[in-house]
């Protein structure tokens, strides 16, 4: 966590923007520290080392542009990947299933995915593959980026101002948030396995 804080301070708002952009827009960025970055940046802003408005602007901009990038990557390369009938993992029917999913749950998927690690990296690309209308995707993308990019740093900032030396417990805080954000996926997977085939 110390290295994350040093990185944030060294690269400031441009670094925050680039990390969020890569995590939300490039499939290879799933390992980047999304939630922990926002929490650490909010706590640093509470300590006066960063400006909260600058942090939120960098996160929202990186989140919006990253998701649009992921969408276009999926739209451009997805059909070719899923065209192969013999592929074990990329079957054409998966695209049809994704289209039905985004038609029914597009709002929840795009907005709520922001708050779930790894899922927020995958959803924009899947939305592009499934040809979710760009205008609708962009609207949900902006709303999700604003809720996540303003809400999480502001929450960390508020707690950082209320509780002295809160930055010493940042690992525990990030761990709790990661567990809470992954629990819904675990419950959904367990629920689907219990259903009769």
* Net shape: globular
Provide the low-confidence segments as ranges: none
- Rg for CA atoms: 18 Å
Counting structural domains, the number is: 1
Major sheet: none
Tell me the span between the first and last alpha carbons. 44 Å
InterPro entries: DedA-like (IPR032818), VTT_dom (IPR032816)
Keywords: Cell membrane, Membrane, Transmembrane, Transmembrane helix
Protein name: VTT domain-containing protein
Membrane topology: Multi-pass membrane protein
Please specify the SSE layout and strand pairing.
Elements: H1 2-25, H2 34-46, H3 52-81, H4 92-112, H5 119-129, H6 134-162, H7 170-194
Helix pairs in contact: 1-2, 1-3, 2-6, 2-7, 3-5, 3-6, 4-5, 4-6
Tags for this model:
single chain; mainly alpha; transmembrane helix; 78% helix; globular; 197 residues; 0% strand; VTT_dom; VTT domain-containing protein; DedA-like
């Amino acid at each position: 966590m110390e290295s994350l804080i040093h990185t944030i301070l060294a690269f400031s708002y441009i670094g925050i923007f680039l990390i969020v952009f890569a995590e939300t827009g490039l499939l290879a960025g799933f390992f980047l520290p999304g939630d922990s970055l926002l929490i650490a940046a909010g706590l640093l802003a509470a300590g006066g080392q960063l400006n909260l408005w600058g942090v939120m602007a960098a996160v929202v901009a990186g989140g919006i542009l990253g998701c649009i990038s992921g969408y276009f990557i999926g739209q451009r390369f997805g059909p070719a990947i899923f065209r192969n009938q013999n592929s074990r993992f990329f079957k054409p029917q998966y695209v049809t299933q994704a289209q039905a999913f985004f038609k029914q749950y597009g709002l929840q998927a795009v907005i709520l995915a922001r708050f779930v690690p790894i899922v927020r990296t995958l959803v924009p690309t899947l939305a592009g593959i499934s040809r979710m209308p760009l205008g609708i995707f962009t609207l949900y993308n902006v709303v999700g980026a604003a809720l996540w990019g303003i809400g999480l740093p502001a929450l960390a900032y508020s707690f950082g101002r209320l509780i002295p030396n809160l930055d010493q417990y940042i690992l525990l805080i990030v761990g709790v948030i990661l567990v809470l954000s992954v629990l819904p996926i675990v419950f959904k997977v367990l629920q689907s396995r219990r259903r009769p085939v």
